[in-house]
Amino acid sequence: MLAEKLAQLILAGKYAPGSILPGEMELGEQFGVSRTAVREAVKTLTAKGMVLPRPRIGTRVMPQATGTSSIRNFSPGG
C-alpha cells in the first residue's frame, strides 16, 4: 500500500517536516503506481495528520509527522 510506504519514508526522515512531497506524477513513477493511487495515498496520510495538501503548492509534511505518528495505525482499505 503506497500510503504505508510513504508513511515509513516520512517517519524515517526521508521527507523532513515542513518539506514538500514530490508531485503525483513523480511519486507515481517512483513507486510504479497511477496518479489515482498517489491521490488516494495522500488522502489517507492527510486523514492521519501526516501531510497537508495545498493546491498549486504541493503536499507538505506536517511537523509532528516524524516520531509521534505510527504506521501501525494503517489498515487495509484506508
From TrEMBL:
Domain of life: Bacteria
Residue ranges annotated for the HTH gntR-type domain, each copy included: 1-64
Stored SUPFAM superfamilies: Winged helix' DNA-binding domain
DNA-binding as UniProt keyword: yes
Keywords: DNA-binding, Transcription, Transcription regulation
PROSITE patterns: HTH_GNTR
Descriptive protein name: GntR family transcriptional regulator
